[in-house]
Amino acid sequence: MTSIYKKSSTALAELITEDASLKLKNDELDNIINQLSRSADDKAIVKVIALLKVAINKLEQKIWQQTPSKKNIKQYQDTFKALEKLYELKSSDERFNFMIVIPVADRPQHLKQCLDSLLTLCRSYEYGGFKYNRFTKISVLIADDSRDSSNIELHKKYCVTLGRKGLATDYFGRDEQLSLVNSITASGTRLTSIISDAGNIRDSAEFSHKGASIMRNITYLKLKQDLSATAATRNTLIYFIDSDQEFCINSAQSDHKYYAINYFHYLNEIFKTQNVSVLTGKVVGDPPVSPSVMAGNFQQDVKTFLNTIAGLNPQHSCQFHQHDKHTRDDAAYHDMANLFGFTSQQQAFNYHCTLQKKHNNADCLRDFSEKLEHFFYGEHPTRKTFFSFENGFTATAPARTVYTGNYVIRPDALKFFIPFATLKLRMAGPVLGRILKKEINTKFVSANLPMLHNRTVESIGQSEFRAGVKNNERLIDLGNEFIRQFYGDVMLFIIEKITAEGFPGKNIGKDRLRIILDETYIKIKDNYIEKHHTILSLKAQIRTQLSSKDRWWNNTSTDSHTVDTSLANFNSFLNNIQSNFDEDTNAYQQITLPCNAKQHLEKILDAMMNYSNDLQHWNKILNSQATHSFQK
Using an 8 Å Cβ cutoff, are 112 and 158 in contact? Predict the structure, then answer.
């Protein structure tokens, strides 16, 4: 058969690469696709695909050289759709399939927002093609750890709706989870510290709120079961995300969100061309850490905001609409960033007002005051992280932390379960990351493929469900999360030290572990106590600012309702700071009192001593022929 490549495909490809403004849905492109279809010439198709990718790279540069525009992004998406038409012409499409796994617990609004964003992404880029009313290379698994029956029904409803819209969706509920765990442990396999003990549970309602790490580990077993039964295993990537994220990004230059990353395309490129086993992305938007380690820097920003707005006329137009010129990817939101190797800038960040209609500085004060409560649910109103294009989307770097809300693995990486899951500590991702760094080294990488993170639901200003956070009217109790964060930090830095000594391949004796444990605890405790004093000092300074008679909000003719509401919100915020960080709190005593600390540290020590056995039992069940016949 005579190739038509020399007659027309080269000319079009060159035009595409030279003119980034070319509209790709024109008759010329349709014509060349028709001709390629008739020729069935894979070599010609592959050549045009390669040149079209060059055009895509040019469009990316164009988009991120300035504030992204809807026009440029639409053209970018259309170019990818043209690329998909070319892939359809090939005799076979060897790109990866993606199974997207979303663990969720009582978060119907978050889940719906997440799934809506996934559907928007699929429609925007059409990765893998859309045939027979479905996206052929994308599927979804919802792993539900909910307790509320009404939320469970909503989650199931969203699965059905998503399936009708073209995304194959499977629901992994409590009954199936309990059955799966019981079928495995019935043989005497000891996985209690990995997936918990379900032996005495008869009602699946009791098998809920197990925690994100346990839920992921149980889901790993489900995935092993499902993928072992299909021939597509080797060509499938497993993509774990959190329900409070979206498949889009933000920009420091605007308040919009952008569907400007074709995640599946670039993940396929990376895994096809690089020897990668586990890849982690990051998040933009709200920080991925607990408010218990952000209260110091946030109060510094609150103090700066009050100092600034105090010098402005409350009736004048709002002066807080300047966008930041730089992104924040240096853990500026973390009070103890220095512990993690980040440079501590010790600087305050300005608040960016989000009010859109005409308003004045007094309105801004009230708007900011209403966001203060959001902080206790994990939102940081002054220190969000923004997307930066950097070196594109296929560049990777050695990683040391798994962002458990955004990571991708090959099926054979299911052997790396989330460690120490039943301790229910925070920092599970960084702990796993240190182990992966030791075990697979260069096969564990990070890539610039972040997702937009939303700790709170916009309509209610709260997280629907957050483990360790209790809401009692206007008092928000972070105590349990605070404890989990502190001892999670202790666990992390212990793992960092012992992996440097050869763990988990090398046995670290109990005496040596105890020494490392005690030294690490003291170091982390001292840092927490130092920040604790700073937090309470800043709280007192803010209280003084609010009550000062020379501040306009205490002697103004401005609408009294606006001022009164603002001051009430600020005082509520300070009351919550006091109730969560006072020395009399249970959390502070669990961290600092030797008798309490000893109990937590002994659990950590036992977990680390048993980790080698956990690995053996886990790999045994994964490699067992019984894996193929788990009860469904």
Answer: yes
DSSP string, 555-616: S--S-HHHHHHHHHHHHHHHHHHHHHHSTTSHHHHHHH-HHHHHHHHHHHHHHHHTHHHHHH
Which tops the pLDDT comparison, 74 or 627? 74
| Site of tokens 């998406």 | 77
Q: What is the mean pLDDT of residues 498-504?
A: 91
Query: Residue 628 CA to chain centroid, in angstroms?
Result: 31
| Statement: residue 7 has pLDDT above 50 | no
Write the pLDDT tens digit of every residue in 334-344: 767 677 666 65
Q: Give the integer Cα–Cα distance in Å for 375 and 300.
A: 14
Cα-to-chain-centroid distance, residue 583:
32
The Cα 566–Cα 553 span in angstroms is: 9
CA–CA separation, 127 and 119 (whole Å)? 11
Q: How confident is the model at residue 526 (pLDDT cuts 50, 70, 90)?
A: very high
* Nearest-angstrom CA–CA distance, 298 and 311: 21
Cβ atoms within 10 Å, residue 629? 12
pLDDT of residue 12 exceeding 60: no
Round to whole Å and give the CA distance between 158 and 226. 22
Q: What is the DSSP string of 440-466?
A: TGGGEEEES--EEE-SSBTTTTB-S--
Is the distance from CB of 87 to CB of 93 less than 8 angstroms?
Answer: yes
Q: Which residues contact 60 (CB under 8 A, 6 or more apart)?
A: 76, 389, 392, 393
* Separation CA 496–CA 468 (nearest Å): 25
Decide: helix, strand or coil at residue 295.
helix
Cis peptide before 419 (omega within 30 of 0): no
Nearest of 579, 564, 375 to residue 461 by alpha carbon: 375
Closest CA to 346 of 384, 303, 297, 379: 297
Which DSSP string corresponds to 149-205?
A: HHHHHHHHHHHHHHHHTT-EEEEE-HHHHHHHHHHHHTTT---HHHH---TT--SGG
Please choose, from the candidates 438, 445, 437, the residue with its C-alpha nearest in 3D space to the C-alpha of residue 398: 445
341, 542 Cβ separation under 8 angstroms: no
Q: Report the C-alpha gap between 443 and 278 in whole angstroms.
A: 6
| Edge-first strand listing for the sheet containing 245-246 | 245-246, 451-453, 283-285
> Quick check: pTM over 0.85?
yes
Tens-digit pLDDT profile for residues 352-407: 898 888 999 999 999 999 999 889 888 888 888 889 898 889 999 999 999 999 99
What is residue 200's predicted lDDT score, i.e. its pLDDT? Answer: 79
What is the Cα 241 distance to its own chain's centre? 6
Measured CA to CA, the distance from residue 32 to residue 22 in angstroms comes to: 15
pLDDT at 258: 94
| Short-list 71, 66, 58, 74, CA closest to 18 | 58
Q: Which two tokens stand for residue 441?
A: 């080294």
- 312 residue type, one letter: L
| pLDDT tops 80 at residue 253 | no
Distances (CA, A) of 446 to 281, 386, 437: 6, 17, 11
DSSP 443: G
Alpha-carbon span 77 to 590, nearest angstrom: 52
Query: How many C-beta atoms lie closer than 10 Å to residue 591's C-beta?
Result: 23
